[in-house]
Amino acid sequence: MRARQSVFVILAVFLVVTTILGSATVVDTREIDSVRGKQVLDSQDFAVIDSFVAEAVQRLVRSRDFTSIAQIRTLILSRRSNQAQYAKQFSQSAQKHISEGFEQAKTLSEDRPFKVTLNLLILIDGMQDPLLVDLAIGKLGEANQVLRYWAVRGVTSPVLGAGGTPDAQLVQRVATALKGLIDSSGPEILALVAQFAAKTNDASLLGQIADTRIKRYADWTVKREHLDTTILKLLCDRITAASPGTQATARRFAQLYSYAIQRYVKGENLLSSSSRLQLASVMAETEDKCVSELLGRPQADIRRAVERSDYSALLQEHDGLLGGGAGPGELVSRLRFDYGRNQDGSVRTAPLALPEPPKPKP
Fold it and tell me: What is the DSSP letter of 23?
């Protein structure tokens, strides 16, 4: 009987150990937890921190199980500390070993490079550490939009997550890196960059995003129209704050809003129901939150025209607000801006007409 019990005990221990070895808990946290509780650290403590980060990152790189990877990321993030010495060493170790992880990813086969790179970028985003920004900047050029999205999160999270005023040099470094991405990035990425531009009061970056959206409306390649509610609101905020470059901001606001309205009308029989619902939301929310504020009175005529599916009334409201054949619209006159110059040099008082949609391929 005792022999049988001994076999069961040995088997149970084996199974427990095997389970532990297959999970994130295989990273021993006893030493790092002891160091984390200290007020003053020495060289041995720094070595413990570095060893923990190195082992955890390596297990993240080698693991193939999604649950284990998520546990490892959580484990790493949970061992951060505000103690100055600890935080500095943890940050330096993370920079070193995540960088090595990226290099290791390049040597892997099948889909492993993508998965490892993705999880390291997600870890960087969670860290919100300015020291890791350059690692994420190095991945902004990824052709894969998912990797690029998480790289953008990694470069913007230390700024967007900052409670106070972000470091000016960090902001400039990130802004410079992001400006090269705008034209080739999807709407999810543009939403992150727009949030960054708003947080850092970067009119140039926000203007570039608006110009990109305007261009995509013009060539009928725009996607995720609901993003423009956010962009229009951010442009509106700059106008109401009387920020520098208000006229250029107002011009972008009006042209982008005009294209959303025109797309809704011209795309009646072309657009998906999802696109039409998104455009309806853009028109109604922008009218309520922005146009009403800019005009200084409640405005709901565009929303009512959309609800009635009255395209004639919708276009009439468009012209009365933004400008048309009869002359400048109310918003144009109130904000004192124009839409640039016509070919003959005269001032253009109406937004550009949206080109006709491309003909469907036979």
Answer: S
Distance of CA 270 to the CA centre of its chain: 29
pTM for the complete prediction?
Answer: 0.86
Q: Residue 248 in contact with residue 235, Cβ under 8 Å?
A: no
List, for residues 91-107, the tens digit of each pLDDT value: 999 999 999 999 999 99
pLDDT tens-digit map of 152-166: 999 999 988 876 667
Is the distance from CB of 138 to CB of 112 less than 8 angstroms?
no
Instruction: Give the burial string for 121-141 (b: 16+ CB within 10 Å, else e).
Output: bbbbbbbbbbebbebbbebbe
pLDDT value at residue 24: 46
- Token look-up 């943890």 returns 90
348, 339 contact by CB (below 8 A):
yes
Give the SS3 label for residue 347.
strand
Query: Which residue, 281, 195, 279, 295, is CA-closest to 239?
Result: 295
